[in-house]
Each structure stands twice: as C-alpha cells, then as structure tokens.
C-alpha cells in the first residue's frame, strides 16, 4: 500500500523476492525532481532516512546540476565532492574508477566501455571495477562470465580530513541488459546470491547492528574506529577477502613514509555506531577496508591490524547474508539516493570491454560529523 503524503509523492516499499528478507528500500513516485516544493523535499528526506535506499524511475533527462541540487537537499551547506581532491592522487585505488564532469565537479561518471562524448568528457574509456583487481583469490577465467563477487563493501567517504557524505545519488544513464550472474561469497559458507549483471548491492547497517548480541551491541556503542590516513593509498597494495568485506592481513599496507604528508589532526576517529537523524536507530557503520585501530571504552587501543580486522569482520559478516542484500537491478533512467551513513554498498558484476554502461554519481563531503550513540 502506498503511504499517503500531503504532496503528490507516494512511497512504495520494495518487496523482496521469495527467500529474501531485507527490510529497506522504497520507490518514490510522483516527484518532479526539477521543481520540488518544500513539502516534497520534507517527504523525500523522511523517505530516505526511513527506507535508506530510494529509487526514482525515468530520470534520464535530469541534468547533472539538478542531480547535484537533489543530493544537496540533504545537506544544503555542503558544496564539495565527497573525496575532495584526493582522487587526484594517482596511487589511490579509487582513481581509475571515476571521471569528474568538468562543468559539475561534484558529479562523477562511472561505468564501462568506450564513450565518444558525455557531459563534456570526450573519448573516455570507463572501466567497471572487476574483483580480479582487488581480491586476494579470484574466480577462474572460465567461470568469470557467469559468476561474480561483491567487489568491495564500503561507505562513500574520504575518511581523512573530510566528513562522510550524508547521501549519495546514482543515476543509471546507460545499462547493458544482459543475463543473471551468480554472486559467490567463496568464504567457505556456500553463500551465494543470484542477481542481474551489474546490480549494485546494499545492506542495512541498522540490521547489521540489530543482529549483534547484547554484549556486542554494547561493545559497538562504546568503541571508536580509527581510519588510516590517506586510506585509499595506504591500502593500495593490500587485497580483499573473497566477499569484499574487508582486507586480508599480510602486512603490506604502505608505511607512513610512503604516504603523502600526514596531518594528525585530519585522522578520523569515528564512533562505530552512527545514529539515524530521523528514526534514531543505530547503524553499525564501519568501512571495513580502511580501519586501522579500535579505541575501547576502557581507554585501551587495539592496533594489531589483523586483530582489528577480525573483530570488525565478526561483527559485520552476519549483516551481508544473501537474504539481507538488496541488489538494485538497474534500468535506464533509475535515480537511486542512499543513506550513506546507514547502508554499506558494493559494486557487483563484470562486463566485456565493449559493453557500454554509464552512471552519474554524486555526493558531497558533509558539513557536519556523524552522530554517535547517546551513551
Ligand atoms: Fe560507492
């Protein structure tokens, strides 16, 4: 049943397929995104924080500027892209995946294949991230067309200096429609998930928190997470676990003397749980690949990287169970907005070099820090 509002906008919960039980995601209908009233804006903001991922259909004609303005509704005083200028660093693992739109630098182009002209970018080649470039163990070449992985579970955030963006928007401009793939976790559990090639996977970090034991909830509420300085350069030699949820510990992260200068005041130490500004719910919100140390309630610090990662993995892994994943099966014109402080997301799928796929992505470094738990 659509949820009635005082504007023409209606909210429709995403119904999971049989066997699936994720409890978030909604489609928003009836919104004119170029001409939103104050009431519309309030309805959309509430819908986002109540459903974490919201989808608007048929938005192919929305300009990059309108996408920027829509994304900024959630944080009106923010103006700069979520990674700032840090992507300029050629050694960042994010560098190859994103191309900045010259006339709207908060909006990035991502996708796959050769593109002659798009938003003022000429003769670009986009490359869909393939797990082969990031995972420690990979799917064999012969299985690769029919099988895939979660590439990297993450939050969109620089995690150094800048505050994590509140919301990210993704517009599917061009989507090659091909067959389904089997997403394999390959972690010994036998977990797998059938999804449409190139789906973006989301999990709720509120569910991730709710699944914890009372003891772990308390630990999560009272522990702070320290992120590595320049995390995407720091982690560049390291490789991921097979389900994309954190890195394998081989002691090969770059030492400080091989990183750009570190300003200690810019290192991020964030709560392990982030509070939803509308519902007050707590999300277990950790970027698993970027963590470096944990600061406990008793004043002690865990800085052994392998131990830190084991703890974080134990807390997060139940939350990415196949039935809890909302895999957005993109259609051209889909505009998704997601609560970047309440979900983790991952690229999935693999494309042939000539398969053209174009998305526009936008987020802004937030104007304020995350809200932690009360206690
Ligand atoms: Fe992302």
UniProtKB/TrEMBL annotation:
Q: Which UniProt keywords apply?
A: Dioxygenase, Iron, Metal-binding, Oxidoreductase
Q: Which Gene3D superfamilies match?
A: Clavaminate synthase-like
In its UniProt record, a GO molecular function of this protein is: metal ion binding
Q: Where is the TauD/TfdA-like domain?
A: 20-362
Q: What is this protein called?
A: Clavaminate synthase-like protein
Cofactor(s) this protein requires:
Fe(2+)
Family, as annotated: Belongs to the TfdA dioxygenase family.
Q: Which InterPro entries match?
A: TauD-like_sf, TauD/TfdA-like, TfdA_dioxygenase
Q: Which domain of life is it from?
A: Eukaryota
């Amino acid at each position: 049943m659509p949820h009635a509002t005082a504007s023409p906008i209606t909210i429709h919960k995403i119904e999971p397929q049989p066997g699936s039980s994720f409890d978030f995601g909604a489609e928003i209908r009836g919104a004119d995104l170029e001409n939103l009233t104050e009431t519309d804006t309030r309805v959309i903001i509430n819908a986002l924080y109540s459903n974490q991922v919201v989808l608007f259909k048929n938005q192919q004609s929305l300009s990059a500027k309108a996408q920027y303005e829509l994304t900024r509704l959630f944080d009106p005083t923010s103006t700069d892209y979520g990674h700032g200028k840090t992507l300029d660093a050629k050694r960042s693992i994010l560098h190859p995946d994103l191309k900045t739109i010259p006339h709207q630098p908060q909006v990035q182009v991502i996708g796959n294949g050769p593109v002659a002209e798009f938003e003022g970018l000429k003769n670009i080649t986009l490359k869909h991230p393939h797990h082969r470039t990031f995972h420690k163990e990979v799917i064999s070449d012969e299985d690769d067309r029919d099988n895939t992985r979660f590439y990297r579970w993450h939050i969109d955030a620089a995690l150094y200096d800048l505050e994590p963006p509140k919301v990210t928007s993704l517009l599917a401009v061009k989507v090659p429609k091909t067959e389904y793939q089997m997403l394999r976790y390959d972690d010994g559990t036998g977990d797998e998930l059938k999804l449409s090639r190139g789906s973006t996977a989301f999990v709720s970090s509120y569910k991730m928190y709710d699944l914890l034991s009372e003891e772990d909830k308390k630990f999560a509420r009272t522990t702070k997470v320290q992120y590595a300085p320049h995390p995407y350069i720091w982690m560049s030699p390291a490789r991921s676990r097979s389900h994309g949820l954190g890195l394998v510990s081989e002691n090969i992260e770059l030492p400080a003397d091989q990183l750009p200068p570190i300003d200690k005041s810019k290192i991020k130490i964030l709560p392990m749980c982030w509070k939803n500004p509308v519902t007050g719910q707590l999300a277990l919100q950790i970027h698993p690949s970027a963590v470096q140390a944990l600061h406990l309630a008793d004043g002690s610090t865990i800085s052994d990287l392998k131990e830190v990662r084991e703890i974080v993995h134990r807390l997060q892994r139940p939350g990415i169970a196949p039935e809890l994943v909302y895999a957005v099966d993109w259609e051209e014109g889909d505009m998704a907005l997601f609560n970047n402080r309440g979900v983790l997301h991952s690229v999935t799928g693999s494309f042939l070099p000539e398969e053209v796929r174009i998305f526009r992505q936008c987020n802004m470094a937030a104007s304020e820090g995350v809200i932690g738990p009360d206690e």
